[in-house]
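Many introductory courses stop at the sequence. We go one step further.
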Amino acid sequence: MRWYTALPTATVAAGASTVAYASLVERNHWTLRRFDVPVLAPGSAPLTVLHLSDLHMTAGQRSKRDWVAALDGLEPDLVVDTGDNLAGTDAVPTVLQALDPLLDRPGAFVTSSNDYYAPRPKNPLSYLTAPDKRVHGTHLPWQDLRDGLTGRGWLDLTNARGELSVAGRRIVFAGCDDPHIQRDRYDLVEGPADPTADLRIGVVHSPEPRVLDRFAADGYDLLLCGHTHGGQLRVPFYGALVTNCGIDRDRVRWLHRWAEPAPGRPNGTWLHVSAGLGTSPYAPARFACPPEATLLTLTARTP
């Protein structure tokens, strides 16, 4: 009799401990991830790209703000922000404070759903049962965020193209608005990426395959995305339960090949999906998937 009465208690205790760890410890365990990406011409010196995504910042998140600001100490050559920076109407100043040291470096960004609309309370089980259903919250001051970034020289790639000179290399970009809420307009940026540039980068918040395939077909060497939170709640030895978009579970985070090399495209296309730095205020937990930024070291490909 004691065995049967003790088992539920132990199970409840284990569950409570897991929830406490996921919500109080891991979601604040800021992590720097590093990958090497062989996308530069043979003989090229390396370039470093700091990829930030999904800050979901609220005004009071000082620890996250200070950690992001300290990333400037990595001295990246380029910074790319793939959206979902805001989680409250008063968060723009905090995001700009976090990014302030990095805004003196070459940078580019796209805006996305949680820059336009505040999160709303929702049943956490809906991430499993209806991940594509969206109910928009309060409008956020995304224009203030955009103006704060472009005012310091960062490229706004939201359904736009652009280029930057980075450490003596010419990089061309194309970006889309958020496909997760059907705001992408790839037709505005379509066409072959400039083959004379030193590097071609595509930027979009949600890694929807229909958009990634068009970037790859146009010859972009590297695609940078966010949105998935790496699954946010991962099961050890299994991985993400959901991706919250069309990407497969195996590529829900980190660096992967999206398209193999082909004639005229010696790099193929690499894809990096950031696991992101935040959560919705209404789902403040991460498990087996710490919040992270990524430093990508772009290296010369093998001849």
